[in-house]
TrEMBL record:
Name this polypeptide is given: DNA polymerase III subunit chi
Pfam families recorded: DNA_pol3_chi (PF04364)
InterPro entries reported in the protein's UniProt record: DNA_pol3_chi (IPR007459), PolIII_chi_sf (IPR036768)
Coiled coil feature spans: none
Domain of life: Bacteria
């Protein structure tokens, strides 16, 4: 399966912070939770292979555990080292999964936000990846997060997820 629309991770020392919002189309594979999890795993792998320490933020503990389990469903040749917050090695793995009630265990440069609430990571991460879901209430919350990042000085971009990705 070919994935598109992932951009390179930047060196936060030389550039301003970025927030990228991926727009989910109603008929895309990412419109459902399994498809969104697939895409989040793809993005986490893409950025971690570039050297980024990635934090995936989920809505709640159950969703975080489901996403962690989803990482085990990939082809063994594509396995990505990951752990839930508070588990795994002392300094963690390149990919850490958490939720609203916990904080990343150590230095993470990039967050992939899967939560649909008002959460923002302005001034906490150099790089933010977020999603604009199909559902109207969640879409409105994504717009609010977008405004907060803009006010915080983040360089913003939106990318439509390819429906065949």
């Amino acid at each position: 399966m070919t994935k598109r629309a992932a951009r390179p991770f930047f060196n936060s020392v030389t550039m301003m912070p970025n927030a990228t919002f991926y727009i989910i189309k109603p008929n895309s594979l990412q419109a459902g939770q399994a498809g969104l999890f697939d895409y989040a795993v793809f993005l986490a792998g893409h950025f971690s292979r570039q050297g980024a320490k990635v934090y995936l933020n989920c809505e709640n503990k159950d969703e975080a555990e489901q996403l962690a389990e989803h990482f085990w469903q990939v082809d063994p040749k594509q396995f990505l080292a990951h752990n839930l917050v508070g588990e795994g090695p002392k300094h963690g793995t390149p990919i850490e999964i958490g939720h609203q009630e916990v904080t990343p265990s150590w230095n993470r440069q990039l967050v992939i936000n899967l939560a649909k609430n008002k959460t923002t990571f302005a001034n906490k991460f150099a790089e933010v990846v977020d999603f604009v879901p199909c559902e109207e209430k969640a879409k409105q919350l994504a717009r609010e997060r977008y405004k907060i990042y803009r006010q915080a000085g983040y360089q913003l971009q939106t990318i439509e997820i390819d429906q065949n990705s």
